């Protein structure tokens, strides 16, 4: 399975390769056949509108707060942002991931290699932001967050500062970077948590 698989969100239906799914959170496979994680893009890099998949209906739609569409009151997202399907984090949502590659349309599903994560707290709640790269993209040769530190340390500083700054000052607190092994363990645990709670979806 090479390249990008485009998802079409139409009346709640999704097309992934030759298969049709109703909810990308639950129906898109956790991993691709080659062992890479599948990644669903909700917010393309370079955009500011917040979009989110409805957990019950599976429809990708604009996120709203107090009846108004949510827009990031800061610089646009520095990478594609979304989630790994069939995972469940502590806040009840799939785990978050930022993809360090060129912008792709919302609703796109792509294969991703997770090289590490960032450990934040959002209003005193743990908020992991996983970092992924495409095996066909700019950073395809990188295997770990340590590799990125040595080769392009400014990339990690940029995305760290972006997440620290896109909400109200002081809301997000950064603690540390997590290596690939620890990030993978957290993702696998999130997949097991999703399986244990599958009956609630």
Task: Explain how this protein is built.
The structure is a single chain. By secondary structure, the protein is an alpha+beta fold. The protein has a single domain (4-200), classed as Alpha-Beta Complex (Inorganic Pyrophosphatase). The chain has helices at 24-27, 145-151, 153-165, 180-196; strands at 4-5, 14-16, 19-21, 37-43, 51-53, 60-62, 64-65, 68-69, 80-83, 96-99, 109-122, 125-133, 172-178. Strands 4-9-10-12-11 form a 5-stranded mixed barrel. Strand 2 (14-16) and strand 3 (19-21) form a beta hairpin. Helix 2 crosses helix 3 (153-165). The longest helix is centred in the last third of the chain and has 17 residues, at 180-196. The protein is globular. The two termini are 28 Å apart. 32% of the residues are buried.
Summed up, the domain count is 1
On the 0-100 scale, what is the average pLDDT? 90
The named CATH superfamily: Inorganic pyrophosphatase
The major pleated sheet works out as: 5 strands, mixed, barrel
Strand order across the biggest sheet? Answer: 4-9-10-12-11
CATH architecture assignment name: Alpha-Beta Complex
CATH classification, class level: Alpha Beta
The count of β-strands is 13
Shape: globular
> N-to-C SSE series?
EEEHEEEEEEEEEHHEH
Please mark out the parts with pLDDT under 50 across 5 or more consecutive residues, or reply none: 1-13
SS field, number of helical segments = 4
CATH topology: Inorganic Pyrophosphatase
In whole angstroms, the N-to-C terminal distance is 28 Å
- Helical amount: 10-25%
